[in-house]
Amino acid sequence: MWLLRYMTKNSLSPRGAVKGDVQGQDGTAVLSSGEHKNLRLCQPYGVASIPPEGACAVVLPLDDGEVSLGVLGQEQSLSEGELMLYSKGGASIVLKNDGRVLINGREYGND
User: Could you report the per-residue pLDDT of 17-50, keeping only the tens digit for each?
Assistant: First the structure.
């Protein structure tokens, strides 16, 4: 819903979204059929991340520039309704449907 409000507020330009590989260490450049630089990163409130170089990102043009919507997700073994946060280095937090929390594979909760 926040993304829809953002896009409506900033009005989309007639060009379409593109996907390409993240370039550089700060995640603000994407190489597709063209090079997209100094991108703003569109993320849910309270979540901050820098996409790793080589990840496949989606870029959306707006009237006042372009924004990276994020990277295409990698396949994870999650059930519907579960949530996983993970880093390039392998750290992870999984919120399971039954109330358990897995941190780097170690189980917590539901005692």
Answer: 889 999 988 888 999 888 899 899 999 999 999 9
Query: Residue 98's closest CA among 76, 78, 77, 82?
Result: 82
Q: pLDDT tens across 63-85, in order?
A: 888 999 999 887 788 999 999 99
**For the whole model, what pTM was predicted?**
0.69
Amino acid occupying residue 90: G
Coil/strand/helix, residue 2: helix
DSSP string for residues in 20-52: EEEESSSS-EEESSSEE-SPEE---TT----PP
> Domains of the chain: which residue ranges?
2-71, 74-111
3-state secondary structure 51-111: CCCCCEEEEEEECCEEEEEEECCCCCCCCCCCEEEECCCCCEEEECCCCCEEECCEEECCC
